[in-house]
Amino acid sequence: MNFKSIGIPTIKLLVIAAVITILLFLTNNTTEAKIAQNQADANVASRKEVLPDADDFDEKTVTVDGVEYTYYEAKNGAGYVFSGSNKGYGGAVVSMVGISSDGKVVGVKVTEASDETPGLGAKWIAADASGNERRAQFVGDIPESGSFAVVKDGGTIEAVAGATITSRAVTHDVNDAIAQYNAVVGGAN
């Protein structure tokens, strides 16, 4: 074994690895701000989707049962946007919920449910082929009990057949948003 057979290939490999590392670093620095801006724009668009009458939002925090949550208050007084996250069938199901200043659920958007069963739990993300929008079940007055429940649990929310766990997770997300809303306005609805 001599230096030519071991040393030169090793040095070449180290140089190639260093060049690739530098290129990745430069690419990350170039795109990082744009990616962050795109994510921020997507979040604003989602907030306006669940609370369409809002013009812009102020970020605030509220504490419910010892847990601090970030929520968004519409600057024009249209209402609030809250988020909830609960365990679904395959992982976390995260939802964004718009509640008007008079206490009505205006919109619900599932923002993360990537690990849910394709074709079943994922039906909560968008309307199905026939245009059925499952999230619309939450829109309107908050129930007298102060929370929603799926039919199997004695409530009115129709679960996706075969995806009751995901349906419960979305329902719990909305209920978490209602609890945050009640903490913000200072009482039960």
UniProtKB/TrEMBL annotation:
Instruction: Write down which residues bear the modification named FMN phosphoryl threonine.
Output: 164
Q: What is its EC number?
A: 7.-.-.-
Q: Which GO terms describe its molecular function?
A: electron transfer activity; FMN binding
Tell me one GO biological process term: electron transport chain
| InterPro entries reported for this sequence | FMN-bd, Ion_transpt_RnfG/RsxG
Give membrane topology per the record. Single-pass membrane protein
Q: HAMAP family, from UniProt?
A: RsxG_RnfG
What subunit structure does UniProt give? Answer: The complex is composed of six subunits: RnfA, RnfB, RnfC, RnfD, RnfE and RnfG.
> What is the recorded name of this protein?
Ion-translocating oxidoreductase complex subunit G
Query: Origin organism of this chain?
Result: Coprococcus catus
